[in-house]
Amino acid sequence: METILDFEKPINEIEQMIFKLKKLANDNKGDFKEQIAELEARCEQNKMEVYSNLSPWQIVQIARHASRPVFKDYAATIFDEFIELHGDRRFSDDRALIGGLATIDKFKVMLIGHNKGKNVKENIANNFGSALPDGYRKALRLMKIAEKFAVPVVTLIDTSGAFPGRDAEERGQAEAIARNLTEMARLRVPIITAVTGEGGSGGAIGIGVGDVVMMLQNSIYSVISPEGCAAILWRDSAKAPDAAQALQLTADSLLKLGVVDEIIPEPLGGAHRNCNEAMSYVKDALVKHLKKFGKTSAQKLINKRFEKYSRMGQFAS
Domain total for the chain? Predict the structure, then answer.
Protein backbone atom coordinates (compact mmCIF):
# COMPACT_ATOMS: atom_id res chain seq x y z
CA MET A 1 0.00 0.00 0.00
CA GLU A 2 1.34 3.42 -0.99
CA THR A 3 2.39 5.68 1.88
CA ILE A 4 0.81 9.14 1.70
CA LEU A 5 2.24 11.72 4.08
CA ASP A 6 -0.27 14.04 5.81
CA PHE A 7 0.85 17.16 3.95
CA GLU A 8 0.65 15.27 0.63
CA LYS A 9 -3.00 14.23 1.02
CA PRO A 10 -4.55 17.26 -0.79
CA ILE A 11 -2.20 16.66 -3.73
CA ASN A 12 -3.01 12.94 -3.74
CA GLU A 13 -6.74 13.67 -3.81
CA ILE A 14 -6.34 15.79 -6.95
CA GLU A 15 -4.14 13.13 -8.56
CA GLN A 16 -6.80 10.51 -7.86
CA MET A 17 -9.43 12.71 -9.51
CA ILE A 18 -7.19 13.12 -12.57
CA PHE A 19 -6.63 9.35 -12.71
CA LYS A 20 -10.38 8.64 -12.59
CA LEU A 21 -11.20 11.18 -15.31
CA LYS A 22 -8.46 9.80 -17.57
CA LYS A 23 -9.80 6.30 -17.02
CA LEU A 24 -13.32 7.41 -17.95
CA ALA A 25 -11.96 9.14 -21.06
CA ASN A 26 -10.04 6.02 -22.08
CA ASP A 27 -13.21 3.99 -21.65
CA ASN A 28 -14.99 6.40 -24.07
CA LYS A 29 -17.35 7.65 -21.38
CA GLY A 30 -16.90 11.33 -22.10
CA ASP A 31 -14.52 14.13 -23.06
CA PHE A 32 -12.83 15.48 -19.95
CA LYS A 33 -9.83 17.29 -21.48
CA GLU A 34 -10.69 20.68 -19.98
CA GLN A 35 -11.37 19.29 -16.50
CA ILE A 36 -8.16 17.23 -16.60
CA ALA A 37 -6.08 20.21 -17.74
CA GLU A 38 -7.56 22.38 -14.99
CA LEU A 39 -6.89 19.73 -12.32
CA GLU A 40 -3.33 19.16 -13.58
CA ALA A 41 -2.59 22.87 -13.37
CA ARG A 42 -4.05 23.03 -9.86
CA CYS A 43 -2.06 19.94 -8.83
CA GLU A 44 1.20 21.44 -10.12
CA GLN A 45 0.50 24.69 -8.28
CA ASN A 46 -0.22 22.81 -5.05
CA LYS A 47 3.02 20.86 -5.40
CA MET A 48 5.01 24.05 -5.86
CA GLU A 49 3.42 25.60 -2.78
CA VAL A 50 3.85 22.54 -0.57
CA TYR A 51 7.29 21.30 -1.57
CA SER A 52 8.94 24.72 -1.73
CA ASN A 53 7.98 25.43 1.89
CA LEU A 54 8.74 22.18 3.68
CA SER A 55 9.55 22.26 7.39
CA PRO A 56 12.54 20.27 8.68
CA TRP A 57 10.16 17.67 10.13
CA GLN A 58 8.38 17.26 6.79
CA ILE A 59 11.78 16.74 5.14
CA VAL A 60 12.52 14.05 7.75
CA GLN A 61 9.33 12.29 6.72
CA ILE A 62 10.26 12.46 3.03
CA ALA A 63 13.79 11.19 3.75
CA ARG A 64 12.25 8.14 5.43
CA HIS A 65 9.53 7.53 2.84
CA ALA A 66 9.02 3.83 2.10
CA SER A 67 9.01 4.44 -1.67
CA ARG A 68 12.27 6.38 -1.71
CA PRO A 69 15.06 4.66 -3.71
CA VAL A 70 17.37 2.48 -1.62
CA PHE A 71 20.89 1.20 -2.26
CA LYS A 72 19.85 -1.77 -4.40
CA ASP A 73 17.74 0.53 -6.60
CA TYR A 74 20.80 2.68 -7.28
CA ALA A 75 23.04 -0.34 -7.82
CA ALA A 76 20.60 -1.79 -10.37
CA THR A 77 19.70 1.47 -12.15
CA ILE A 78 22.66 3.86 -12.39
CA PHE A 79 25.52 1.37 -11.95
CA ASP A 80 26.49 -1.49 -14.24
CA GLU A 81 28.14 -4.82 -13.52
CA PHE A 82 27.73 -4.59 -9.75
CA ILE A 83 29.53 -7.56 -8.20
CA GLU A 84 28.87 -7.80 -4.49
CA LEU A 85 31.80 -8.77 -2.27
CA HIS A 86 30.94 -10.48 1.01
CA GLY A 87 32.17 -10.69 4.56
CA ASP A 88 34.52 -8.90 6.95
CA ARG A 89 36.85 -11.95 7.20
CA ARG A 90 36.41 -11.87 10.98
CA PHE A 91 32.85 -12.64 12.02
CA SER A 92 30.03 -12.37 9.47
CA ASP A 93 28.61 -10.86 6.31
CA ASP A 94 26.45 -7.98 7.58
CA ARG A 95 23.48 -7.41 5.26
CA ALA A 96 22.84 -3.85 6.48
CA LEU A 97 25.99 -2.53 4.81
CA ILE A 98 27.01 -3.99 1.47
CA GLY A 99 29.40 -3.23 -1.34
CA GLY A 100 31.28 -4.41 -4.35
CA LEU A 101 32.84 -3.50 -7.66
CA ALA A 102 30.71 -1.64 -10.20
CA THR A 103 30.93 0.68 -13.17
CA ILE A 104 29.19 4.00 -13.73
CA ASP A 105 29.53 5.78 -17.07
CA LYS A 106 32.70 3.74 -17.79
CA PHE A 107 34.28 4.56 -14.41
CA LYS A 108 35.21 1.53 -12.34
CA VAL A 109 34.35 2.13 -8.67
CA MET A 110 34.05 0.38 -5.34
CA LEU A 111 30.41 0.95 -4.42
CA ILE A 112 29.47 0.75 -0.73
CA GLY A 113 26.19 1.66 0.96
CA HIS A 114 23.57 1.04 3.61
CA ASN A 115 21.13 -1.63 2.54
CA LYS A 116 17.56 -0.90 3.63
CA GLY A 117 14.80 -3.07 2.28
CA LYS A 118 11.75 -2.29 0.15
CA ASN A 119 9.28 -4.13 2.39
CA VAL A 120 8.96 -5.39 5.95
CA LYS A 121 10.57 -8.76 5.21
CA GLU A 122 13.61 -7.15 3.58
CA ASN A 123 13.87 -4.50 6.28
CA ILE A 124 14.03 -7.15 8.98
CA ALA A 125 16.56 -9.24 7.03
CA ASN A 126 18.74 -6.15 6.50
CA ASN A 127 18.29 -4.81 10.05
CA PHE A 128 16.65 -1.68 8.60
CA GLY A 129 20.04 -0.54 7.30
CA SER A 130 21.56 -0.32 10.79
CA ALA A 131 24.96 -1.95 10.50
CA LEU A 132 26.87 -4.06 13.00
CA PRO A 133 30.65 -3.71 13.45
CA ASP A 134 31.00 -6.52 10.90
CA GLY A 135 29.48 -4.22 8.28
CA TYR A 136 31.92 -1.39 8.94
CA ARG A 137 34.86 -3.79 8.91
CA LYS A 138 33.62 -5.23 5.62
CA ALA A 139 33.34 -1.69 4.21
CA LEU A 140 36.92 -0.94 5.26
CA ARG A 141 38.15 -4.19 3.70
CA LEU A 142 36.54 -3.18 0.41
CA MET A 143 38.02 0.32 0.61
CA LYS A 144 41.48 -1.19 1.07
CA ILE A 145 40.91 -3.36 -2.01
CA ALA A 146 39.93 -0.20 -3.91
CA GLU A 147 43.10 1.51 -2.72
CA LYS A 148 45.25 -1.45 -3.80
CA PHE A 149 43.87 -1.34 -7.35
CA ALA A 150 43.56 2.49 -7.57
CA VAL A 151 39.76 2.40 -7.87
CA PRO A 152 37.66 5.34 -6.55
CA VAL A 153 35.24 4.67 -3.68
CA VAL A 154 31.57 5.71 -3.88
CA THR A 155 29.49 5.51 -0.71
CA LEU A 156 25.71 5.94 -0.45
CA ILE A 157 24.47 6.78 3.04
CA ASP A 158 20.96 5.84 4.17
CA THR A 159 20.67 4.73 7.79
CA SER A 160 19.03 5.88 10.99
CA GLY A 161 22.26 4.91 12.77
CA ALA A 162 24.56 2.03 13.60
CA PHE A 163 22.91 -0.93 15.32
CA PRO A 164 22.69 -0.14 19.07
CA GLY A 165 22.29 -3.69 20.40
CA ARG A 166 24.39 -5.60 22.90
CA ASP A 167 25.99 -7.85 20.29
CA ALA A 168 27.21 -4.78 18.38
CA GLU A 169 28.81 -3.37 21.51
CA GLU A 170 30.38 -6.71 22.39
CA ARG A 171 32.03 -6.87 18.96
CA GLY A 172 33.37 -3.31 19.13
CA GLN A 173 30.93 -1.00 17.36
CA ALA A 174 32.66 2.23 18.41
CA GLU A 175 36.12 0.92 17.52
CA ALA A 176 34.96 -0.26 14.09
CA ILE A 177 33.49 3.14 13.20
CA ALA A 178 36.48 5.03 14.62
CA ARG A 179 38.84 2.82 12.64
CA ASN A 180 36.93 3.62 9.45
CA LEU A 181 37.20 7.36 10.11
CA THR A 182 40.95 7.08 10.59
CA GLU A 183 41.54 4.91 7.55
CA MET A 184 39.23 6.86 5.24
CA ALA A 185 41.01 10.08 6.17
CA ARG A 186 44.22 8.72 4.63
CA LEU A 187 42.85 6.50 1.87
CA ARG A 188 44.86 7.10 -1.29
CA VAL A 189 41.95 7.06 -3.76
CA PRO A 190 39.03 9.49 -4.25
CA ILE A 191 36.03 9.01 -1.95
CA ILE A 192 32.72 10.39 -3.21
CA THR A 193 29.83 10.28 -0.77
CA ALA A 194 26.11 10.96 -1.17
CA VAL A 195 23.43 10.98 1.54
CA THR A 196 20.39 9.59 -0.25
CA GLY A 197 17.92 9.27 2.64
CA GLU A 198 18.75 9.33 6.33
CA GLY A 199 22.26 10.08 7.53
CA GLY A 200 22.16 9.11 11.19
CA SER A 201 25.01 9.59 13.67
CA GLY A 202 28.10 7.34 13.63
CA GLY A 203 26.23 4.86 11.48
CA ALA A 204 26.42 7.39 8.64
CA ILE A 205 29.87 8.86 9.25
CA GLY A 206 31.35 5.35 9.37
CA ILE A 207 31.33 5.42 5.54
CA GLY A 208 30.99 9.20 5.20
CA VAL A 209 34.50 10.68 5.19
CA GLY A 210 34.64 11.88 1.60
CA ASP A 211 36.57 14.21 -0.67
CA VAL A 212 33.14 15.49 -1.59
CA VAL A 213 30.00 14.88 0.48
CA MET A 214 26.66 15.49 -1.22
CA MET A 215 23.07 15.29 -0.05
CA LEU A 216 19.88 14.76 -1.96
CA GLN A 217 17.62 17.78 -1.54
CA ASN A 218 15.19 16.02 0.80
CA SER A 219 17.64 13.89 2.74
CA ILE A 220 18.80 14.49 6.33
CA TYR A 221 22.15 14.23 8.10
CA SER A 222 22.41 14.52 11.86
CA VAL A 223 24.24 13.45 15.00
CA ILE A 224 20.99 12.00 16.39
CA SER A 225 17.44 11.34 15.22
CA PRO A 226 14.83 14.02 16.02
CA GLU A 227 12.98 11.50 18.21
CA GLY A 228 16.14 10.66 20.15
CA CYS A 229 17.01 14.32 20.59
CA ALA A 230 13.49 15.12 21.81
CA ALA A 231 13.58 12.23 24.28
CA ILE A 232 16.84 13.55 25.77
CA LEU A 233 16.05 17.28 25.83
CA TRP A 234 12.34 17.25 26.61
CA ARG A 235 11.76 13.64 27.69
CA ASP A 236 9.00 13.59 25.10
CA SER A 237 9.46 12.07 21.63
CA ALA A 238 6.38 14.02 20.48
CA LYS A 239 8.67 17.06 20.42
CA ALA A 240 10.51 15.55 17.44
CA PRO A 241 9.39 18.35 15.05
CA ASP A 242 10.95 20.92 17.39
CA ALA A 243 14.12 18.84 17.60
CA ALA A 244 14.28 18.59 13.80
CA GLN A 245 14.19 22.38 13.62
CA ALA A 246 16.95 22.77 16.22
CA LEU A 247 19.24 20.09 14.78
CA GLN A 248 19.65 21.85 11.40
CA LEU A 249 19.67 18.47 9.70
CA THR A 250 18.46 19.54 6.25
CA ALA A 251 20.65 19.82 3.17
CA ASP A 252 20.23 23.61 3.00
CA SER A 253 21.32 24.07 6.62
CA LEU A 254 24.29 21.72 6.34
CA LEU A 255 25.51 23.34 3.14
CA LYS A 256 25.54 26.71 4.91
CA LEU A 257 27.41 25.18 7.84
CA GLY A 258 30.01 23.66 5.51
CA VAL A 259 29.28 20.08 6.59
CA VAL A 260 28.34 19.05 3.05
CA ASP A 261 29.65 20.34 -0.25
CA GLU A 262 26.74 20.06 -2.64
CA ILE A 263 22.98 19.50 -2.83
CA ILE A 264 21.67 17.11 -5.46
CA PRO A 265 18.22 18.24 -6.67
CA GLU A 266 15.16 16.02 -6.51
CA PRO A 267 12.07 15.95 -8.73
CA LEU A 268 9.21 18.12 -7.54
CA GLY A 269 7.60 16.23 -4.66
CA GLY A 270 10.69 14.24 -3.70
CA ALA A 271 12.57 11.18 -4.90
CA HIS A 272 9.72 8.88 -3.87
CA ARG A 273 7.43 10.45 -6.47
CA ASN A 274 9.85 9.95 -9.38
CA CYS A 275 12.58 7.48 -8.48
CA ASN A 276 14.22 7.21 -11.89
CA GLU A 277 14.59 10.96 -12.33
CA ALA A 278 16.03 11.31 -8.81
CA MET A 279 18.54 8.54 -9.43
CA SER A 280 19.59 10.13 -12.72
CA TYR A 281 20.48 13.32 -10.81
CA VAL A 282 22.59 11.26 -8.41
CA LYS A 283 24.35 9.61 -11.34
CA ASP A 284 25.15 12.97 -12.95
CA ALA A 285 26.61 14.28 -9.69
CA LEU A 286 28.73 11.17 -9.09
CA VAL A 287 30.11 11.13 -12.64
CA LYS A 288 30.92 14.84 -12.46
CA HIS A 289 33.08 14.32 -9.38
CA LEU A 290 34.67 11.11 -10.66
CA LYS A 291 35.88 13.15 -13.63
CA LYS A 292 37.05 15.95 -11.34
CA PHE A 293 39.12 13.74 -9.02
CA GLY A 294 40.29 11.28 -11.67
CA LYS A 295 43.73 12.85 -12.19
CA THR A 296 44.36 14.10 -8.63
CA SER A 297 47.44 12.66 -6.95
CA ALA A 298 47.01 10.54 -3.82
CA GLN A 299 48.94 12.96 -1.60
CA LYS A 300 46.92 15.93 -2.83
CA LEU A 301 43.69 14.04 -2.10
CA ILE A 302 44.81 13.33 1.47
CA ASN A 303 45.96 16.92 2.06
CA LYS A 304 42.72 18.40 0.72
CA ARG A 305 40.68 15.93 2.78
CA PHE A 306 42.55 16.98 5.92
CA GLU A 307 41.98 20.66 5.16
CA LYS A 308 38.29 20.06 4.43
CA TYR A 309 37.57 18.42 7.77
CA SER A 310 39.84 20.78 9.72
CA ARG A 311 37.65 23.70 8.64
CA MET A 312 34.51 22.20 10.18
CA GLY A 313 33.29 23.36 13.56
CA GLN A 314 34.85 26.83 13.53
CA PHE A 315 33.01 29.52 15.44
CA ALA A 316 32.49 33.02 14.09
CA SER A 317 32.77 35.87 16.58
Answer: 2
